[in-house]
Design goal:
about 240 residues; mainly alpha; Four Helix Bundle (Hemerythrin (Met), subunit A); 2 domains; two-stranded antiparallel ribbon; globular
Length: about 240
Amino acid sequence: MSCRIIRTISSATFAIALCAGSQAFAADPGTDAMQEAYAPYRVALFKTNGKSQAEAQQAATQAQRAWNQLMEQFGAKPPAPYDRDPAFAKSLTEVARIYTKASDEIGANQLTAAHETLEKARDIMADMRRRNQVIVYSDHMNAYHAEMERLLIDGSQALSQPNGMLQVTAMVGALNYLATKLSTEAPASLRQDEEFRSLLKAVNKSVSDLQTALFAQDPVAVKDAMRKIKSPYSKLFLNFG
């Protein structure tokens, strides 16, 4: 399948290459459609994490429209393997409700709340795939994201506790493993993409820099490296997640 470019504008222009062959390689039409709908969803997540209500609303509307098209196509008659899933239609509806709620929150200029609402859709989509034994690259991205969020929340608190550096070192070990999976589980089409390689390299460097600070037992450097963990992932997720 050919690549499609979705462009969104904030203070800079983001060009997002969406190749069905790289983003949805499960070889079934239902997963392919969900991965195509996932692309504008990623943009909506990104925009609700910003400050522009107008851009967030535009992105959320595009994502909601893509999901509605998926529901129209497969809601009444899901393709294999989802045709064996009695909760498939319910999950589609739950995601649709999340989009409606997020849209209302954006309309009230509650972007942080809308972002948190949209996060729930990612879990529902992942669960739909998991219970139907479907794995896509986004699942590896999601696993990294979950561990990264745990590190940023629990790790920051742990640093003020006895043996906190050891606790954070253990968390970063898990994060490093998941960063490696982002490389090893990437489909060939992504591994050949220069932009993907560059963004993934930045993710790996952010983890490596944090490990170096931990091994040096330098709390100031550790805190600084932790602050730099999220940005490289966000860029990779927006373009290829």
